[in-house]
Amino acid sequence: MTVGGEATATGNGQTVCVTGAGGYIGSWIVKLLLEKGYAVRGTVRNPDDAKNAHLRGLAGAAERLVLCKADLLDGDALRAAIAGCHGVFHTASPITDDPGGTACGCVGSPFSDGRRLVKVVR
Ligand SMILES: NC(=O)c1ccc[n+]([C@@H]2O[C@H](COP(=O)([O-])OP(=O)(O)OC[C@H]3O[C@@H](n4cnc5c(N)ncnc54)[C@H](OP(=O)(O)O)[C@@H]3O)[C@@H](O)[C@H]2O)c1
């Protein structure tokens, strides 16, 4: 999968999952992937939340963006969102303003260690 490169590059029919699609980083990745011609499966906790509406307005979204409901703690939902994808950008993360805490550790994210991420992606 190539995300960078020329503006005319296409996704060649490939599908990429972006977790946390409605977040700051996730939204930019979704935008760039759509511009490159990829089909995108974006995970959000609530597809109907108005804060995710900007995603549907992105160029190419009507044709190639699917929003999937998935919490990081719901392995089955994540597995379903990732299944069949050619690549995954994992940007979803609980944000904490506690300087002493690690975000993933606070809520026991399935991505808090690499082995669990591999387990979900398989
Ligand atoms: N310059 C700017 O305008 C701007 C704007 C935003 C952020 N930032 C900075 O950029 C940094 C990085 O942005 P970011 O994209 O990592 O953070 P973010 O914009 O807060 O996005 C975090 C994403 O993680 C998702 N998430 C959190 N907990 C989850 C859970 N339990 N299950 C599933 N998804 C979950 C959120 O989904 P939900 O939508 O469901 O909560 C959201 O999509 C931020 O920390 C901030 O400092 C800058």
UniProtKB/TrEMBL annotation:
GO terms for molecular function: oxidoreductase activity, acting on the CH-OH group of donors, NAD or NADP as acceptor. PANTHER family: CINNAMOYL-COA REDUCTASE 1 (PTHR10366:SF406), NAD DEPENDENT EPIMERASE/DEHYDRATASE (PTHR10366). Keywords: Oxidoreductase. Pfam families: Epimerase. It comes from Aegilops tauschii subsp. strangulata (Goatgrass). Residues 16-96 form the NAD-dependent epimerase/dehydratase domain. This is NAD-dependent epimerase/dehydratase domain-containing protein. InterPro entries: Epimerase_deHydtase, NAD(P)-bd_dom_sf, NAD(P)_dehydrat-like. Gene3D superfamilies: NAD(P)-binding Rossmann-like Domain (3.40.50.720). The keyword Oxidoreductase applies.
